[in-house]
Structures are given as structure tokens and as C-alpha cells.
Amino acid sequence: MPLGTLDRTPPPFFRQGPSALTKLVFFSALAVFLMVADGRFRIIEPLRSGFAVVLLPIQRTLAVPVSLWESAGDYLRGLDQARQTARRADERLAAQAEKAARVDQLRVENERLRALLELKPAIATRSLAAEVLYEASDPFSRKVFVDRGSTQGVVAGAPVINDAGVLGQVTRLYPLTAEVTLLSDKDAAIPVLNTRTQQRSVAFGGQQLPTGGAMELRFLPANADVKVGDALATSGIDGVYPPGLPVARVAAVERRAESGFARILLEPAARADGVRHVLLLEPVGRQMPPRPAEDAATASRAASAPARGARR
Amino acid sequence: MIMPRGSDQLLLPVNPFFIGLSLLVALAFNLLPAGRHPAQPDLLAVVLVFWNVHQPRRVGVGLAFLFGLLMDVHEGALLGQHALAYTLLSFAAISIHRRLTWFGLAEQALHILPVFFAAHLVSLLVRMVAGGMFPGWWLLLAPVFEALLWPLATLLLLAPQRRAPDPDENRPL
Questions:
Q1: Yes or no, beta carbons of B74 and A55 under 8 Å apart
Q2: Distance (Å, rounded) from C-alpha A269 to C-alpha A198?
Q3: Does any CB of chain B come closer than 8 Å to the CB of residue A170?
Q4: Around Cβ A69, how many Cβ atoms within 10 Å?
Q5: Quick one: which of A270, A250, A95 has its CA closest to A165?
Q6: ipTM confidence score
Q7: Which helix (H) or strand (E) holds A91?
Q8: Alpha carbon of A309 to those of A300, A301, A303: distances in Å?
């Protein structure tokens, strides 16, 4: 019999190390501590960032076979499908061309009217293109990860959009990636404006529709003027989302007699599944012009004047 | 372990590199961006439990905890959720490992099913308390799939130890 056949280190009789029960108690306590620290106090972000940086090369490598698989599917589905896709894209482009041609003219007109009314000029939003790395497989939340992080200048709370509308918001930053919570997540909330009635409200995520993840308009009275098919856009009063981005469409309205509120379900404008490229916007609140300097100077003078007087 | 435990064959000693490699491959399968479905089986959990049962002195609770943290960061979940689930899984596997190997593969899968079920239940409870969404009843299928993967994992992961100790022309492997 060759030499390597048997395990030549028999199990030790006495030096067994800590028992499995001891380890269970220790590591369970550690896990509970980490959960509380993560959920309540957010004091272990460096640990999380470290793990995320370690995992990133593996995640990028593993995205390669999946994208290859998808492109192979595209290749095999053939010329016909490709032609259809191209024709649909052309149709959409033609539909948007008319709007796009008028946008410049309207922007100039808008600037002039704002100047006439002595309104502040509208804020132009800075943006950063990003690619979706992967969709988190966590079934308890709706999140995706994108390949831009704090080193590329992404800030926490940045709105994330694609060509169809708002997708969500950056909720956690890593050095090279960012976690985006989608609008259909339970914790997501976004202030919206009904474009038909100009009524403001807040849309919350976490509803389950048969068609997928969906949202809900809460706290609207049972006789509120909301119809199926109403388009909702961002209202722009939250200091995060720029105004006018499409958010959702009303999918169902239930007016129940026993409740004072209507139950209004929404279908998000941007479908989050299968999205590849997104745009990270800078939160509007960060682009507000700084406070005028002379105001600050006079205020500080006014504030320090009595102090100086007291010292004398 | 020198004595064959319930199996018909004397196993070769395990290669530690193979354990590490199999765990990393399982982690890679878990990290594959394959969408989100509550009934997805957790391959890493299956492989961890397998090594906990067959090599409890090499793969213990601590390693399970570490892999759990990696999964938490990858999924953007509450840090410690998978770690807690894997810790409990690993402890349960180590406590039943002497009994389990005396049974056949189907009975082993039946033994391991409630363990996986409990691990998913712990994850669910933790996330419900922390304010997550209820993922739907498909979640009940995930432990069933994991238990169904158990015989396959056993065949694959024990294969290197079942090779012939002295390869010749008739038994090249």
C-alpha cells in the first residue's frame, strides 16, 4: 500500500480546541453585534468597504461569463430579432427627435421668461454614467450595484435614472462601487407630482403587483382626483431629485368605503430588471448656489458686535 | 479518520487545497449575477455543511462565519445575517456529523433538510425584524433544493477521496 493512503495525523485526544458550542455562542453573539452595529449605528462601514473591495475582482470576473451567455443568446436569436430591435429604436428616436429639436428653443425661452420674472435660473444637473454590475440576489430587498463609487465622485443619496425614468437612489457607497436601492424596495420613498392634476404626494415602494415590484401612493383621501394611467413625475421639492423626471404610472385605484384613504398602486416607469446602463445624478441640494458672501459677512459682524462690546 | 464510517470504501485522506477550492467555487456560484429569486438554493451553504459533516476538524464554525460575512457584503444585506445563518448551520452539521454518515445519501438529505430550513427561517426572522420585504412563499423551496443537491455534492466532493490508492492501467484515476 502506498504511503499517502491513510491520514497519518490521528485526531488529538485532549487538545480539541474550543468546543463547537462555545464557537457557536461566540460567533452568534458576534453576528448579532454586527447586525445591530450595521443596522442602528453604522459604525462598521470600513469593514464592509474592505470586504467589498476584496470581492470586486471576483464579481467582475464572474460578470464575464454571464454577459457572454447573454450576447450568445442575442447572437443566436438571429437577424430578424436584431432588425426588429433596430426598427423599434429608430421609431423611438424619431418620436424623440421632435421633442429634442424643441428642447433647445424651449430652454432659451424659459431662461428669458425666468429673467423677465426675476426668477433664479434653473439648475442644470451634473451626471455620471455607470454600468450595473449585478442585481443583488437578496430576496428581502430590491437593490442593484453599479460600478462607480466614492473615488469617482459619487455621493450618497444620488438619484439614479435610465432612459425611461427614475430607478432609485444610491444608499451605500464603497470605494469602487455603489449600492442603489430601487424604487420598488420597501424602504424607498420619493416625492411625486401628478402631471395631470399638479397634485403633490409621496410614493412608497414595497408593494407586490402580479406584474412585478411596484409602488403605492399613501395618504391620499378616498375622493382624491387620481385616475388609472396618470403619469407621476418627480416634484423637485425634496432637494434630491431634479423636477420633471418620470417616476411611475397609476396602475390601479381602489376606493374603499371603510377607509378614509384610497389605495393607489403604481407601476414604475423604469423597469429595473435587465437594465445595463444608468445615469447617476448629483443631488439637487448639493448644487444650490452658496450663500452670498456679503450676507454672511454682515451676519457675522452683527453677531460679533455685541460680543466685542461686552469684552470692552 | 481511519475507519470507514458506514461507507463501503476506505477513503483517502482529504486534500486541504481541494476543500478550499470547492468552497471558493461554491462562493463563485453564489456570486454569479443570475438575477433574484427567493427559491435560489445557496450552494455555498451546501458545500459548507458538507465539509462540516465530513471534515469537522478542518472546516468549522469560524470559517462558516467568515463566508457568511462575504455573502452579506455581496448581497448588500444586513451585515451578519448570513454569518448568523451559516454559524447555526455549521453548528448543527457538526453536532449531527457522527450520526449522519451511517445513513445512505437519500436519508442524509432528509436529515439535512430541517437544518437548511432552520437556517432560512433564521434569515427570514432577522430580516423581518430589521424591516425587509417578505420575499414570498417560494422561499420555502430553497431548503428543499439545497437538500436535493446534497447527494450530488457528496458524489462530487468525495470523488477525489474515492480514487484508487495505487493507480494502474485498469484504474488510471
A1: yes
A2: 18
A3: no
A4: 11
A5: A270
A6: 0.83
A7: helix A45-116
A8: 14, 12, 11
Annotation: CATH topology of A124-288: Thrombin, subunit H (2.40.10)
**Sequence-separated (6 or more) residues with CB below 8 Å from residue A76:** none
Whether the model clears a pTM of 0.90, i.e. scores above it, the answer is no
Residue in chain A lying closest to B88 (CA): A24
Of B14, B38, B60, the CB nearest to A23: B60
- Cell numbers given for A31: 453576528
Length of chain A (residues)? 312
**Sign of the Cα pseudo-torsion (B71, B72, B73, B77, in order):** positive
Q: Say if residues A62 and B32 touch (Cβ distance below 8 Å).
A: yes
DSSP string, A15-51: ---S-HHHHHHHHHHHHHHHHHIIIII---HHHHHHH
> Average pLDDT of A168-190?
90
Smallest Cβ–Cβ distance between B87 and the set A24, A140, A206 belongs to: A24
Beta bridge partners of A160: A168, A280
| Residues B65-88 pLDDT 10s | 999 999 999 888 888 899 999 999
In this structure, is the dihedral angle defined by the CA atoms of residues A10, A16, A17 and A23, taken in order, positive or negative? positive
- The yes-or-no verdict on residue A7 having pLDDT over 90 is no
Nearest to A189 by CA among A177, A199, A181, A179: A181
CB contacts, 8 Å: B18 with chain A: none
Q: Do B2 and A39 touch (CB under 8 A)?
A: no
Residue A170: enclosing H or E segment and its boundaries?
A: strand A166-173
Q: What is the pLDDT along chain B (173 residues), one digit of tens a residue?
A: 444 455 566 778 888 899 999 999 999 888 887 777 888 899 999 999 999 999 888 888 999 999 999 999 988 888 889 999 999 999 999 999 889 888 888 999 999 999 999 999 999 999 888 878 888 888 889 999 999 999 999 999 988 888 877 777 777 66
Q: Which three cell numbers mark A156?
A: 450618497
Q: Residue A255, SS3?
A: strand
Question: Where are chain A's structural domains?
Answer: 124-288
The tens digit of pLDDT for each residue in A222-240 reads 888 888 889 999 988 888 8
